[in-house]
Amino acid sequence: MLHPRLTVPLGLALALTACSDDEPGEATRDAAAPADLAMPEVDGGPDERDAFIALDAGLELDAGELDGGSLEEADAGEPAGDASMGRLGAGAWIRQELAAVPALTGTFTRRTTVEAPALVHDATGCCSKYAFYVRDDEAPNDRRVGFVNVSIADLVSHDAYGAGIGTSRDFPGTILYLADVTIEPRWPDWAGYAATNYDGMVLDGSAAIYAENLTIREYNADTAIDIKAQEAQLVDLTIEGPGHRTLRYWRTGPHYLVGSSLNNTGELGSGAMLWFSNCDETVLRVYDTTFDGETTVANPRVQCDRGSRPTIEYLEVDPRTTGEMHPMFSY
Q1: CA triplet 224, 16, 232: central angle to 5 degrees?
Q2: Domains of the chain by residue range
Q3: Cβ count near 278 (within 10 Å)
Q4: Among residues 254, 130, 114, 146, which one has the least CA distance to residue 197?
Q5: pLDDT one-digit tens code per residue, 86-122
Q6: Residues 331, 320: Cα–Cα separation, whole Å
Q7: Cβ neighbours of residue 84 under 8 Å, at least 6 residues apart?
Q8: CB 277 within 8 A of CB 251
Q9: What is the reported pTM?
Q10: DSSP states of 153-215 as a string?
């Protein structure tokens, strides 16, 4: 049963009661929360150190090779503005912030390793287990990576794991900035973790994700975004299509969901809108967002691995105007 339309003053939490409904016997390597939230369970299958050789049946031995794209030095492209709000936009902020780091642009048809720091812009990726996989093997120790005007589609994996954009637990502290990104992996339909542990994005080891105008469609399998970052600020997020779970939050936040539209038709897996590793300690702040067209998320669409009462605050004031969100959202 859906909650009635609610208006909750800024700072007042609405506690929603929910409980886990994971399927009995499910192969849940990543389905349960870790005992120690300081190092969440990896979502990438075998040890990622040998990912370039082992995970794709030998088909991606040149996983770090740029296939059809190019590596540039300090070429961030032209900033795009957002005239409707009288601002340049998050994409312009990212291009300026990362103007001095190596940039990748063009068409990539194999798994592409993104060595942080980096800016991926005006790019397309397809046809691989991970379109873009972030690592930090080389100096400097700067784990910022931006994606601006990027389209990812038609991914292919030869095991049970994959995502459009992935980060690694081997490099904790990765920070992702996204603007104008579309991910349509078209994974096979959800059939359980042993066979279809596929996501739109999987953020192992990440510290934060800041995204504006991110669209994920036809992820079909596990999760649109598997969020293992302590802070996730998602603005103008659009998620469409069926999948086991829509958003998974492994850390307590506070997280923000602003001006967004989440839709899950529910015919694959649990159809959950929100999954929390630790419901009793997690805070999610929501503004101007709909869940299957409703302004609040219904209790049956919320799942908890631990606890039963996530704090979901429905804000009356746009948090982009109060100074509590990242400055790229008001740039």
Answers
A1: 40
A2: 14-330
A3: 17
A4: 130
A5: 889 999 999 999 999 999 999 999 999 999 999 999 9
A6: 10
A7: none
A8: yes
A9: 0.79
A10: E----SSSEEEEEEE-TTSTTEEEEEEEEEEE--PPPP--TTT-EEEEEEETTEEEEEEEEEE
